[in-house]
Design brief:
Blueprint: E1 2-3, E2 8-9, E3 14-20, E4 22-27, E5 36-42, E6 46-47, E7 62-66, E8 71-77, H1 78-87, H2 92-102, H3 112-122
Antiparallel strand pairs: 1-8, 2-7, 3-6, 3-8, 4-5, 4-7
Helix pairs in contact: 2-3
Length: 146
C-alpha cells in the first residue's frame, strides 16, 4: 500500500515491511496531549512484529505516520511473516554472527530486528590464514614496544 506524507498507517493485526520511504513512530504513552517520536523507520524495516523490535511497534500507545510522500508498506498476516522470519535464521554463518553480537557487551541490548539488520545488511565475514597480515601498524605504534 502507498501512503501520502502524515497519513496514519493502520496495521490491522498485520506485519508491515517498508519498501519505499519512511515512517515516523509516535507514542502518547506519557500523555495524550504530548505525543513524542519513538523512532523513524526506513526501507527494509519491519513494523508490527513485536518479537523482533522489543514490542516498540506493537505497544497500544504507538501509532505510525508516513514521513515521506509515496511511502510504501507491504503487509503480511502475522502467521505468514513469522514463517518467513524463522526461515531467514537457517543460514548457519548468519546465526553464528548474530549470536556473537548478542553476547557482546556493546550489542546485547539491541533488538532482534537491529541485530539481523547488522548481520544481513552491514557485517561482512572475512577469513584469514594464521599469521596473515590483516593491516599494517605504524612503526611508531605503542604496540611495537610490547
Amino acid at each position: 500500500m502507498s501512503f501520502d506524507r502524515d497519513k496514519i498507517i493502520f496495521l490491522q493485526d498485520n506485519v508491515g515491511v517498508i519498501t519505499n520511504g519512511s515512517i515516523r513512530i509516535r507514542s502518547h504513552e506519557n500523555g495524550v496531549l504530548t505525543p513524542f517520536t519513538v523512532g523513524k523507520y526506513k526501507e527494509g524495516q519491519i513494523i508490527g512484529h513485536g518479537e523482533s523490535d522489543n514490542n516498540i511497534t506493537t505497544h497500544s500507545q504507538t501509532w505510525f505516520l508516513a514521513f515521506e510522500p509515496n511511502t510504501e508498506v507491504v503487509f503480511f498476516p502475522k502467521a505468514v511473516f513469522n514463517q518467513l522470519w524463522k526461515k531467514q535464521k537457517f543460514n548457519t554463518q548468519h546465526t553464528i554472527l548474530a549470536e556473537m553480537l548478542r553476547n557482546n557487551v556493546l550489542f546485547k541490548h539491541l533488538s532482534e530486528q537491529t541485530i539481523y539488520a547488522l548481520v544481513f545488511d552491514v557485517a561482512t565475514v572475512k577469513k584469514y590464514r594464521p599469521g596473515q597480515l590483516i593491516c599494517r601498524m605504524s612503526k611508531r605504534s605503542a604496540m611495537n614496544k610490547l
